[in-house]
Design a protein that fits this description.
With 178 residues, the chain is an all-alpha fold. The chain is built from six helices and no strands. Helix 1 packs antiparallel against helix 6 and helix 2 packs antiparallel against helix 3. It is globular and about 45 Å long.
Length: 178
């Protein structure tokens, strides 16, 4: 075995984050057939987060600009969807946060590179936002339904909440790694 236990742990954590985001993206992609707009944005976010979390080192330098462009497009999509209601503001925040993380990764300031001067204000603000989102989402998921007759039964709404919670936790983990 090469490397330290902490580097192995970081690698395993990264791959678990990749899996979590990819499964969430796949579920959202499945929902696109019946739902449309918001589910498509969530699928792009899930797959993009999975790609950003892959532990490839610098990835040859292609990942930050490509992911930045994809998430800029996702931000424009979320901005377009804002016409339909304020819920899409969260999608806009998430897309812009991913643009920020892609830019930080491209400049050598994110994902394990350390920033020296401490947490920037934007990173701290995003951390607070996603910490609150995860706590609130978890609370809503736990209190959403009463006891069900079958322990493994979940409704589609509960799966959507769980998917959003998983992606919120993934975003929080990615921000913590900056």
């Amino acid at each position: 075995m090469h490397g330290s236990a902490s580097s192995l742990s970081a690698c395993v954590s990264s791959w678990l984050l990749v899996l979590l985001c990819a499964v969430s993206g796949a579920y959202c992609l499945r929902r696109v057939r019946g739902g449309g707009g918001a589910a498509a944005g969530e699928a792009v976010m899930g797959f993009g987060m999975a790609l950003m979390a892959v532990p490839l080192g610098d990835g040859g330098g292609w990942r930050p600009p490509v992911l930045g462009a994809v998430f800029c497009a996702a931000a424009l999509h979320a901005l377009w969807l804002l016409r339909g209601g304020a819920h899409h503001a969260h999608h806009l925040v998430g897309s812009l946060a991913m643009v920020y993380m892609a830019a930080a990764a491209g400049s050598g300031g994110g994902h394990g590179h350390g920033q020296g001067a401490g947490l920037p204000l934007l990173t701290g603000t995003l951390l607070l936002y996603y910490a609150g989102y995860v706590v609130l989402g978890g609370t809503r998921l736990v209190t959403a339904g009463g006891p069900s007759p079958e322990p493994l039964y979940t409704t589609s709404a509960e799966l959507v909440r769980a998917c959003r919670l998983a992606m919120g936790m993934g975003m929080l983990a990615m921000l913590l790694s900056m």
